[in-house]
Amino acid sequence: MNPKLRSIRPEPATVNGRPVLLLRDPLGLSDQTVAVPQALAPLLALCDGTRDESAVRAALQVRHGIYLSPDRFAEILRHLDEALLLDNDTFRLARLRALNAYRSAPCRPPALAGHSYPADPQELASLLDGLLAGVPRQPISLLARGLVSPHIDYQRGGAVYAGVWSRVAASARRAEVAVILGTDHQSEGALLTVTRQSYATPFGTLPTDLRAVEAVADALEGVAWAEELHHRTEHSIELAAVWLHHVRRGEPIALVPILCGSFAPYIEGNLDPATDPAIDRAIGALRAVLAGRRALVVAAGDLAHSGPAFGDPVPAGPVTRTQAQQADGELVGAITRGDAAAFFALIKAEQDRRHVCGLPPIYLALRLLEPVRGEPAGYAQAPADSQGTSFVSVCGVALL
What we know:
The structure is a single chain. This protein has helices at 41-46, 53-64, 70-82, 89-104, 121-133, 154-174, 210-219, 235-247, 264-268, 277-290, 318-336, 340-349, 359-369, and strands at residues 11-15, 18-24, 33-37, 146-149, 177-183, 192-193, 199-201, 204-206, 254-260, 295-300, 305-306, 374-383, 391-399. By secondary structure, it is an alpha+beta fold. It folds into two domains: 11-99, no CATH class; 112-399, 3-Layer(aba) Sandwich (Protocatechuate 4,5-dioxygenase, Chain B), CATH 3.40.830.10. Strands 4, 5, 6, 9, 10, 11, 12 and 13 form an eight-stranded mixed β-sheet that branches. A hairpin with an 8-residue loop joins strand 2 (18-24) and strand 3 (33-37). It is globular and about 70 Å long.
């Protein structure tokens, strides 16, 4: 067997005074956590599917001076296999079973209800109304065609959520269909990922617009289903859907939920999303199916992720925060001008070193709505660790 580790993000930690890497299944198919000593980090990199077990052990010893007995290596592989962290038949069977269960369920249940926000609809409404009550009175955008909304948790991003959703509430209530473009944090290469499942919130169910979903899937020649299981636990669409349902006072609306994959190929290479025929086809299909309908387009995406919590080598202090606010201001400026190309160019120029996870949904929303302009409706830098050394920046923009 050639062991191949799945695409996962190890989390540094200390267990019993020893530095380890915690490995978890990003799809949530397994609730097991595997702790690997940090000294064995090279082992994880060598498990890339190109070597058998003896070759992995030999490379580990020759390249890194680490001897691992066959029994110890077999034990590690067993733990990884049981936790569904290896790209093998065990994982693929578990994924297939989970996908079948997801597709056969009555709806896509809210994954974060009772954890990130109240599952009880009255408690949830009270929470969101409290956030809305804290927003200074401001003009209501009666003609809003969309918005940029955070997908950070409500506790940290509540003021920005409330600021932008209060601006577009009237337009949201008038809309006949809503497209939510959300960041796919578990993206494995798919550009866009759709689902036929309807998203449920504690307020009820938002029925998926199957005609729109099928149009996007057809435009992408079927690959839009490849990572459908990501919808099961991804929070970006869910957190926007809850706000949409709330500002509509519990009235359901046809929904087009689309997860947006990583733009790394455009950032790291010579490809340009402006000339990608797949993006053109998907946007063209959406425009055609939305024509003549009052639509609201939501880009559910955060901005920068800075500090050690996101792999940066140094803590994010006051200087970093000031610089980030300036750089984020340029991004928001491009959004308000409706300039998708400039928004992308700013992030590419810095090789996305600030980890702007909202790049794909915001870029695609601007492309879908162009010509479009925006009105800023909030900005914040939310803490991302208990030491105050990392933060996530979020913004709200009403798109007109």
